[in-house]
Structure formats: structure tokens, C-alpha cells
């Protein structure tokens, strides 16, 4: 009997050993596996181990006009070729966006969220609106849907108000943001929420003097290097010195219009500022529009696999920078 069982035992032993030996190579670690739930600690954004972390990637264009880039292939290419650790999905609200076609715009955003989760990077879900305080109920409904579906995913961050304009922080932007945050927190108690400030998310110092009470909120800092200079960096430093965390959820190396010339000296100063304070960033934007801030030339394929000649001057510059920023992050990850 033992003679009959021995070959079977040896066979089982060999299978067990073989399975164990190949398991590590089958495990694919991702960016999100490495950093986990992103959260604030003082004026820093940190990873699951409370170590400061800077995520760098790209923002997609307004969803109602750049929706053809809202696809998994594009997201995968941004991770694999550009080394993006984060992508921002900019849900356009006015001008034929969510207010007009809520289901269509929501579908574009969820496609990007699903893609980011699949490839293991982070995603900023951005309510891309200059007048969000006038669309509170729509914003609450949108973020309720997102939080209910994705609130258990560490990949997801919420940007509740893209760029408030000339309105009060304490009486307009803050109450609006608190109302939306309350809805999100019913379904997602701990993911990062990014809050805009007046003057196109530049008055971060004003917000820092009257901050939102929530354990995981950062304030968006937006800049365009051809227009914004040391005075805005001073405002950012004042906010940081007040103890709040900042997140550069949108920046460009063009003028504030999205077009115009590239000021390389000022761009270098801004990118050094990002490095100095370990700030996360999303560059504006993945779009094939004929303007300086668009990363792609007109006619570029919307599914990635871009040739060098399909990249704009800005796109070439930013791709190189993101690859350098995130090179070490991807070095040991097995995709």
C-alpha cells in the first residue's frame, strides 16, 4: 500500500513546491499597492506608512470636448510610457457637459476610474466647474454616485470644485465644499478630498486661514508658468506655513489662457517648488487641441501609443519630466 501511495505523495509534493515557486512572479505590484491610501499629515500628503509622497501625472481635458481620450488604452499608455502615477478626469459641467448630459459625462468619468483601478494608479475625479456653487445639488448627486461605487478603492480622490472665480471663500466656496464633502463622507470616510479656492484655485492662503474641518482634505493650487510667478508661490508658502496640505491638481507651462509662449525659466522655478515641498501634480492636458498647453498635436490618436512627432512642445517637455519624477516608483514594479 505504501508503495502505491509514495508516488502520489511525491507528485503532490512536487505540485505544491512548484506552485509556491512561481507565485512571486505572478504577483503584480502596482503604484497603489506601493503607496496605499493617500492622506494628509500636517501640511504633507503621505502614503499608507505616513511617508511624504508626490504623485505626478496628467489631467485629461474637459470631458465634453476631450471625451475621446477617456478610455482604458489612453490611461494604460500614460502609465506605461509616461510613468504617470495619477490621472485626472475632468468632468465638464457647463457648456454641454454634465448639466446637459449627466449620464454621458458620468460614463466617461467612470471609464477612466475603472481604467485607473485596473492598471493600479490613482485618479482624481474632478468636478470641472467655475460656478459649482450654483450647481450644488448636481455636484452632490455626482459625488454620491462616485463615492457609493468607489469609496472603498484607495485609488480614488475627489476634487469637488475645480476653479472658483471671484467669490468669497468663507461664505461661498467653503460652505459649498462642506456640503459636498458631507455627502462623500457618508460613503467614503477616508479618501483624499481636494478643495478649490477663489481666483481660479490660487487663494490657498485665504482658505488656510479658515480651513475645512475634515481629517483628509488638501487644497488645490493651480498655476500656469507663463502667467503666475513668485507672488503665487508666496501665497502657497503662506498656506503651507499655516499647516494645510496643497495638491497641484492642475498646472500648465503655457500662459493662463492655455495658449501663448512657454517661459522655461519660470517653469523651472515652479517645478523646483513642486520638488521642494513634495507636491503632487497633474499637468493640463491630454488633448490634441492646437494650443500650447495641449500635450498632443491635432489629430493624435486618442488611445495612446503616441509617436514622438505626435507630441506638442509642452507634451514632450512634460512627458520627460514625469518620467524622471516617477522613474524610481516604476523601477521595481512588475506590470
* Mean pLDDT over the residues: 93
CATH class: Alpha Beta
Number of strands: 10
> In the CATH hierarchy, what is the architecture at level 2?
Alpha-Beta Barrel
Compute the number of structural domains: 1
Strand order of the largest sheet: 3-4-5-6-7-8-9-10
Order of helices and strands: HHEEEHHEHEHEHEHHEHEHEH
Layout of helices and strands:
Elements: H1 2-26, H2 31-35, E1 39-41, E2 44-46, E3 56-60, H3 63-66, H4 72-80, E4 86-92, H5 102-119, E5 122-128, H6 136-150, E6 156-159, H7 169-187, E7 193-195, H8 198-201, H9 204-209, E8 217-224, H10 230-241, E9 246-252, H11 264-276, E10 281-286, H12 313-331
Parallel strand pairs: 3-4, 3-10, 4-5, 5-6, 6-7, 7-8, 8-9, 9-10
Antiparallel strand pairs: 1-2
How does this model look, in words?
The protein has 335 residues and is α/β, with parallel strands linked by helices. It has a single domain (51-330), classed as TIM Barrel (Alpha-Beta Barrel), CATH 3.20.20. It contains twelve helices and ten strands. The protein has an eight-stranded parallel β-barrel with strand order 3-4-5-6-7-8-9-10, surrounded by five helices. The longest helix has 25 residues, at 2-26. It is globular, with a radius of gyration of 22 Å.
Amino acid at each position: 500500500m505504501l508503495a502505491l501511495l509514495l508516488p502520489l505523495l511525491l507528485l503532490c509534493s512536487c505540485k505544491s513546491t512548484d506552485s509556491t515557486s512561481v507565485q512571486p512572479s505572478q504577483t503584480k505590484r502596482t503604484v497603489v499597492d506601493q503607496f496605499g491610501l493617500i492622506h494628509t499629515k500636517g501640511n504633507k500628503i503621505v502614503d499608507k506608512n505616513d511617508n511624504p509622497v508626490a504623485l505626478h501625472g496628467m489631467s485629461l481635458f474637459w470631458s465634453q470636448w476631450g471625451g475621446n481620450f477617456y478610455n482604458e488604452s489612453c490611461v494604460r499608455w500614460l502609465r506605461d510610457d509616461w510613468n504617470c502615477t495619477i490621472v485626472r478626469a475632468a468632468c465638464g459641467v457647463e457648456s454641454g457637459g454634465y448639466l446637459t448630459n449627466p449620464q454621458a459625462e458620468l460614463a466617461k468619468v467612470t471609464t477612466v476610474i475603472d481604467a485607473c483601478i485596473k492598471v493600479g494608479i490613482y485618479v482624481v475625479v474632478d468636478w470641472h466647474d467655475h460656478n459649482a456653487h450654483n450647481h450644488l445639488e448636481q455636484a452632490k448627486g455626482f459625488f454620491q454616485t462616485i463615492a457609493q461605487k468607489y469609496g472603498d478603492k484607495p485609488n480614488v480622490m475627489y476634487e469637488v470644485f475645480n476653479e472658483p472665480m471671484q467669490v468669497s471663500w468663507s461664505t461661498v466656496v467653503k460652505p459649498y465644499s462642506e456640503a459636498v464633502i458631507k455627502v462623500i463622507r457618508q460613503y467614503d470616510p477616508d479618501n483624499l478630498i481636494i478643495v478649490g479656492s477663489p481666483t481660479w484655485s490660487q487663494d490657498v492662503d485665504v482658505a488656510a486661514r479658515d480651513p475645512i474641518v475634515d481629517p483628509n482634505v488638501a487644497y488645490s493650487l493651480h498655476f500656469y508658468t507663463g502667467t503666475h510667478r513668485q507672488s503665487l508661490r508666496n501665497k502657497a508658502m503662506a498656506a503651507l506655513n499655516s499647516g494645510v496640505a496643497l495638491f497641484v491638481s492642475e498646472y500648465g507651462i503655457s500662459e493662463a489662457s492655455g495658449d501663448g509662449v512657454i517661459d522655461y525659466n519660470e517653469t523651472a522655478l515652479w517645478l523646483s517648488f513642486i520638488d521642494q515641498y513634495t507636491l503632487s501634480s497633474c499637468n493640463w492636458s491630454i488633448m490634441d487641441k492646437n494650443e500650447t498647453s495641449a500635450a498632443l498635436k491635432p489629430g493624435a490618436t486618442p488611445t495612446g501609443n503616441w509617436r514622438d512627432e505626435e507630441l506638442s512642445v509642452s507634451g514632450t517637455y512634460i512627458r520627460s519630466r514625469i518620467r524622471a519624477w516617477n522613474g524610481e516608483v516604476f523601477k521595481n514594479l512588475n506590470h
